[in-house]
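Title: Comparing notes on inverse folding

I've been comparing how different people in this forum approach sequence design from structure. To keep things fair, I'm posting one structure and asking everyone to reply with a full sequence. Here's the target:
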């Protein structure tokens, strides 16, 4: 799954990477969490330009009776999204780009311990998750726009940390993914393959990222981890002092 990520790129880099007409109104975020407003890029259906919007993370289908379903729909499996009632309409007609420059995953390293890792591009550049969006009318008759991030199988870089990863799109696929005229999900299926591991990097970060209230550069800072304890967070070391060290 993808439950935390960051987007810290300056507005001009987001503008240039996604072909926007102007700088988007975005303040760098280091620890984006579900239910929060997130940046998305959509294709204007009436003219050939891309638009920037802030949508709530956690897709609420148009037919939902209440918003609580959004807590369960922060991610959609790319292999089944075209079939699931919550996602199939959006998969056909409401695809979007979700800009990011890193995502976090947690590796289990003990009975109660997990080590967070940051995953991003080798050049630290901005990239995009494959996303879906939806429009829902709340009980007060207000329109609420929400989104979800698609996931796929892992590549070799992510595999030892988690069994799923967000579907990262190649820039060459942005036009196809956003094209409102492409309403057959099978035509965009190849866009959702695991991203090439050789173009990515990972490193351990502190457990500060575990708490959504923490949203600053320290969440993304690489921590030094001794070779013998390279999978353990600094917060876990005291608990592990009495345990035998792992061997090569």
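Reply #1:
Here's my take.
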């Amino acid at each position: 799954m993808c439950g935390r990520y960051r987007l810290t790129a300056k507005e001009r880099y987001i503008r240039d990477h996604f072909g926007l007409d102007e700088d988007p109104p975005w303040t760098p975020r280091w620890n984006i969490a579900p239910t929060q407003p997130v940046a998305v890029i959509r294709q204007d259906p009436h003219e050939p330009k891309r638009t920037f919007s802030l949508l709530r993370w956690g897709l609420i289908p148009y037919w939902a009776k209440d918003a609580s379903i959004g807590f369960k729909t922060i991610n959609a499996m790319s292999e089944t999204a075209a079939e699931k009632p919550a996602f199939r309409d959006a998969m056909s007609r409401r695809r979007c780009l979700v800009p990011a420059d890193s995502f976090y995953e947690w590796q289990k390293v003990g009975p109660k311990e997990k080590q967070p890792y940051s995953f991003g591009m080798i050049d630290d550049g901005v990239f995009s998750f494959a996303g879906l969006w939806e429009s829902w009318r709340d009980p007060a008759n207000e329109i609420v726009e929400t989104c979800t991030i698609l996931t796929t199988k892992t590549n070799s870089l992510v595999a030892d940390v988690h069994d799923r990863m967000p579907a990262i799109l190649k820039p060459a696929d942005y036009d196809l993914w956003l094209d409102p005229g492409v309403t057959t999900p099978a035509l965009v299926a190849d866009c959702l393959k695991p991203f090439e591991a050789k173009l990515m990097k990972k490193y351990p970060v502190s457990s500060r990222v575990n708490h959504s209230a923490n949203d600053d550069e320290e969440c993304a800072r690489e921590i030094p981890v001794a070779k013998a304890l390279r999978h353990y967070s600094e917060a876990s070391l005291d608990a592990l002092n009495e345990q035998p060290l792992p061997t090569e």
